[in-house]
Amino acid sequence: MFLCTAPLIANMNHAKSSTLDTFNCNVTGYPVHAITWKNAHWPLQAECPKTYSTLRHHGMYQCFLYNDLDGGTAELKISDILK
């Protein structure tokens, strides 16, 4: 059996509307079995695995990528975006 994989790499971008912060976890690599989100190390539930939206406007947001062989992480801090 031949298994084709590529290292998982995550990067994140941010979009802001008047009331909503939206974070996108951009993924490269294969396969991606799971994407999870955290805010200040607390697990978050996302409607779409690659996107998380919130009314909160502070803190550190992270997305984590997983497969059987590898993992990747990206993070953004709201304070970094506002500078």
TrEMBL record:
Residues in Ig-like domain copies: 7-79
SUPFAM superfamilies, per database record: Immunoglobulin (SSF48726)
Superkingdom classification of source: Eukaryota
Name this polypeptide is given: Ig-like domain-containing protein
Species: Caerostris extrusa (Bark spider)
High-level lineage: Eukaryota, Metazoa, Ecdysozoa, Arthropoda, Chelicerata
